[in-house]
Amino acid sequence: MERYSLQKVIGEGSFGRALLVRCKSTQEKYVVKEVQLPKNPSKLENSRREAILLSRMKHPHIVAFREAFEADDLLCIVMEYCSAGDLLQRIRQQKTTQFRVEDILRWFAQMCAAAVHIHDKRVLHRDLKSKNIFLTDNGTIKLGDFGSACILNSSKAYAHTYVGTPYYVAPEIWDNKPYNNKSDVWSLGCVLYELCTLRHPFQASSWRSLILKVCRGAYPPLPGRLPYELQYLLKQMFKTNPKDRPSLHSILTSHRVSRLLRAHLPPQVRAQPTHTRHLLLQQRSSPKPAAKAEGRFPESGGRLSRRTPRARCWPMPASPRPTASHPPTSQVQDSCSNVQPRRTTYSTRV
Questions:
Q1: Which of 72, 195, 239, 349 is most buried as measured by Cβ atoms within 10 A of its Cβ?
Q2: How many other CB atoms are found less than 10 A from the CB of residue 3?
Q3: Of 292, 263, 235, 250, whose CA–CA distance to 102 is shortest?
Q4: Whole-angstrom distance, CA of residue 314 vs CA of residue 336
Q5: Helices of type H across 82-175
Q6: Are the beta carbons of 148 and 163 closer than 8 angstroms?
Q7: Which residues are annotated as a binding site?
Q8: Domain 4-80 belongs to what architecture?
Q9: Which long-range contacts link 342-347 to residues 24+ away (Cβ below 8 Å)?
Q10: Are 16 and 3 in contact (CB under 8 A)?
Q11: Tens digit of pLDDT per residue, the chain (350 long)?
């Protein structure tokens, strides 16, 4: 930390502290996330997971990684500072004034582009919510907080452990079923609904009522002032069967709403025709042929094959009870032991 001067503490939680610092040599501001390192060697690598993942994610709409180091039993992750705060703060600032449709489309397109990038790397974020989406001074979206993320063994593998913030968790996770990147699609649907209405789609006074609403996909309809394409998209993102939800690739390229989102896509994606983009994205995300079973979602709702590839995770700890007023800020997290750290990437400054 000798290269940085502390400005102030900007956040505290179960993970540790978030500090605003200034680089002494460049005078640039950064955020340092301090994470307490466990004594158990097997859990030590899991604590380093966020730094490892973030260092691999280079995208204009993902919080940029600068460096990571360990000092005094702390893992310090130095990352880009988003001075406009998070999207939850921005939503609360609106109070009763609705966002412009143009702003909703721009932000949603940017967060989808970021999520597509991590899905292409077989990474599930697993805690997509407005509090983990940040804004720069010029209003650009930056996806952050990879503390709950998990790398799958293959593009057709599934995770099995409960992780996330209850109000944003997809129904298949509540049903204790295996899940893939379609659970992130559900969570982004919750964020889109918040942008459209300034409130969460699933609100309840008890844990049981919340789970029932989520598993039924029961939410108040969007205001009539919004484009039909947005209302149709949200209905698709909130399909309780993950197989029926669109992928983020299709939302950005071939869905009804892609015409509205196209102007807000990153230039490297927007420059190609819609059909070509869709084919390229499909090819890029297609797995190599494998001799073993592929581990798809069972079409008839049956059980997964014994040979289905899985993300190796630690057992689920006890879950906190949500409140009616606001989603809990603490998350129930697990550790994915199939994430292998790459020392050169972890320690190299960007």
A1: 195
A2: 13
A3: 263
A4: 7
A5: 87-94, 101-120, 171-174
A6: yes
A7: 33
A8: 2-Layer Sandwich (3.30)
A9: 342/52, 345/52, 345/55, 345/56, 346/48, 346/51, 346/52, 346/55, 346/68, 347/67, 347/68, 347/69
A10: no
A11: 889 999 999 988 777 899 999 999 999 999 999 988 888 777 777 778 888 888 989 999 999 999 999 988 899 999 999 999 999 999 999 999 999 999 999 999 999 999 999 999 999 998 999 999 999 999 999 999 888 888 876 555 566 566 668 899 999 999 888 888 999 999 999 999 999 999 999 999 998 999 999 999 999 999 999 999 999 999 999 999 999 999 999 999 877 888 888 878 767 656 544 443 444 444 444 444 443 333 332 333 333 333 333 333 333 333 444 444 444 433 433 433 333 333 333 433 44
Write the CB contacts of 1 (distance below 8 Å, at least 6 apart in sequence). 21, 32, 71, 76
Q: Which residues belong to CATH 1.10.510.10 in the chain? A: 85-271
> How is domain 85-271 classified at the CATH fold level?
Transferase(Phosphotransferase); domain 1 (1.10.510)
Residues marked as catalytic: 127
Mark the binding-site residues for ATP, compressed into ranges: 33
In angstroms, the CA 188 to CA 193 distance is 9
Beta pairing class for 74-80 and 65-71: antiparallel
> Computed from CA positions of residues 343, 346, 348, 350, in that sequence, does the dihedral angle turn out positive or negative?
positive
Distance CA 170, CA 177 (A): 10
Whole-structure pTM value: 0.76
